[in-house]
Amino acid sequence: MTSLKQLLTAREMPVFIAILVVVIATGVAKPTFFSATGVIDILLGVSIVAILAIGQTFVIVMRHIDLSVGSLIGFTSFVIGDLYDKGYGTVGALAGALAIGLIVGAANGFLVAYMKLPSLVVTLGSLYIVRGIFSDYAFGRTVTAAMVPPEVSWIGLNRLFGIPYLFLIGLLLVAVSGVAMRRLRQGRDLYAIGSNPQAAELAGIPVARRVFGAFVINGAIAGLAGAVMLGRFSQANANSGLALELFVVAACVVGGVTIAGGSGSVWGAFLGAILLQSITRAIGALGIPQFWQQAFNGGLIILAIAFDKYLNSRVKTTTIMGSKDE
Amino acid sequence: MSRLSFSWDKGVALFLVLAVMWGTLVADNFANTSNLAFVLRDVTEFAIIALAMTFLIISGEIDLSVASTLNLASASTGFLFREGLPFEVAMVGGLLVGLACGLFNGFLVTKLGLPSLAVTIATLALYRGLSFALLGNQPVNQLPDFWISIGYGKIPGTFLPWSTIVLVILAAIAWFILHHTRFGRWTFAIGVNAEAAKFSGIPVQRTKMTLFAMTGLMSGVAGIVYTLRFASASPDGAVGFELSIIAATLFGGVSIAGGVGTIWGVLAAVFSLGVIRSALQLSGFSANSLLMVSGGLLLISVIAPRVTEALRNRKPAAAKTNTKKTLREVGNE
Amino acid sequence: MNNRLIKSGIKAFALTSVLALGIAGCASGTTESASTEEETPAAEETTEAASEGLRIAIMPKAINIGYFAAWDEGAQAACEELGASCDYIGPNEATGPAQVQFINQVIQEGYDALVISAADQNAIVPALEEAAAAGITIVTSDADVAAESASARLVSILPSAADRIGTAEVDWVAEEVGEEGSVAILSAAATAANQNVWIAAMGPYLEATYPNMSWVGGSLDSAVFYGDDDATKSVEQFNAILSQYPDVAGIIAPTTVGVLAAAQEKKAKGVDVAVTGLGLPSEMAPYIEDGTIAKVGLWNPIDLGYVAVYAAVLGHNGEFDGAVGASFTAGETTYEVVEGGIAYLGDPFTFTIDNIATFKEIY
What we know:
The complex is a heterotrimer. Chain A is mainly α.
């Protein structure tokens, strides 16, 4: 168990504080923000980006990036509805989504881990390829509410003690990943690789296998997360998931998962996603004129990134998971 | 290192020639001057920004906000014109806005030390948001006819669009600076190893700041060209251009790890992509196919050099790349 | 050094070959002459023969959108009747610059006419003017260019007079909320010309006709939220409306993406707010059937496509000049051109529990 001091100096603390600041400040200005709808909405809206950010963390920690997640989740959210509509059943539809996620993840992983190609380029390429295949496959069709598997829409619409199931899925994922990153040798290896790939190699860590694994897992997560997206919106079309990857990366960075690799945690990424969503909601609730909202959003994200960097460079921090910061 | 860029640059130039030939064979209306004019007009904004992006990526940084900067420059021009300023003055205003955006990015990266990938995602949103704040939901049209004819029309007596002149001049300047001046050599040195560059007396931070400013200014120029070509300034223009520009730059042989690249390669890459799009379109392929082709080309652009190098050297390229990355990371701290 | 020389040499060679091919193309003639070769002067003399073999490009805002698939259906039906050959081409993102690339293709390939739904009311104008100069007849349908640029096209086929669409929607929401309460609007992109015109009509009409109703925030401006025709953004804006104005009685969504998102969100949250607007019957059917939505409306995009092709063919053959007061016949109906060079189809259909079963199969 982490001591109180460890908790307070955790790398994730700045993000958590930022979230509190945003939520409380907005709530003071506009008390309706504190209503169940206000806070629950944040949780509901955050689910997709949060889940993707968790998977992205595995990849970023090792100094890589995966830009194809937006196209991938859009594709699988459509495929799930489409397969179900064609009679494959819920399990069949989800299996299809998982398969697509695994294939894309494996392709990315192979090119990056074994052919040693730069991940930015590879995943930018797969972003285009997947979006192209997706657009052709979907071509003008829309997946509508009637085509969503009932289990998926049930999870999308319901809550446990008021907390949306979609959020709970994310919470479960981050808890499991967090433990895995810390306890499992494979998890700690990721940090080692990110800190110093050559030392890791010399220490006998199978770098290529870990990198490959991370991309495959990220792909699987993005693939299955299509169900979350479909459950949330009850519709999908060729534009689903467009430009989502940039938000995911921003959530990771804001949450302390540095692009340079080697530090940050899935909890940080999760909180980062929550922070981004809180900012967006706060801006909406505060009644900032429509045409200024996006500018505010961008400005606040810059502040969040700077704030996180400032605090983390001043204080000697450890992550909540206990692994040391650089 | 230079062997890598040598083989890929030759590759892209060859690819451009092959693409043009393939287009001629495969599509009926491809190989004539009016189509060439269309392609030129289409790629000009991308090419202008790609010139600056080349420098930036070679130095080890990146800028994802270029499309939003282009659009903010365009929106500013439109805004100033709508407020009553003469159009020529409005255009200068737009250029200055582009420059300011670049300077702000540079400030965030060099003075605050924030990672460029992450922070330019945020400025992407900020600059686009400012375009909306300026124009609301009212695009500006009714621009002076004279300037629109420059933006869309051709140089009398030829098939070349006016905007091509701007591109040629900027490309020549960029080529000269990157490959034949001290500043260009500094850019490469910083990309190869920022720490060593600093120790050998190169003003790393100042150079990077200049590079970001250049990128902003070029995005501003592209924004003006864009405004004239589409005879309007709108808050939601140029969405998603940044990824295409980066893809073209990378396809042109600029290594994402820094330290490698040429202006020729990038120009050839930008034109190739424009040529291929045109050829695909004219032979009846849907717009979706172009996405797949772009992605595929990007992958080939990194796979091919690796394969040829592996065949040539029989040595894993991994060690080289990893070393570079570690050293660069140290240089960024 | 040697390498560099070779490199520069290859570069120069590459660029020269491109230019050479270009100049060679110059010798083979520009596209302008190519297209006029196809539209022979004889076409203007024989009307029946002229429809045969006409090549028309049908260009939506974006090819991947279901609404335009229906629009194209109508266009293709008209093409068959007229013996013209029609190609459905367009970008996969609904932006001006993307559409311009395809307008260029239409010019390159020497089409006779272009039926287009403008993705951007300004950005495509120079390209359209170039197409017109090349002899291509241009008809906009579903979405027009800016009023100032109306001369760039022959005529525009639009669903109904803007105020009719806007005021009808106000009527629908008023009906559902019992003519009292505050109302918000969930629109498309802030720059969406169609929506802005409809919204402008809604403002004065609501104030004049329903004294017990108001706009949230007190004015029309504060009541409009932009969902950008994106599912995610529309859902977020729906929630923003609810969190800023918890007492809102009704929401008008004059866009098929927006109304679908609003319906889905209303059902998910179980909130008590009336949702109406412009919706595709096939998409809205489940929500109408389970009572989430009482009524939505839309014109028939199939008709829009159908009538537009007729206008284009008749215009190309010189039988219709698009002037104010001129009229033309498409199928069974005659349409007249009114001010602004626009021909309107008629009032929108409304879809309720009574007729949704039939319409959801059609589009």
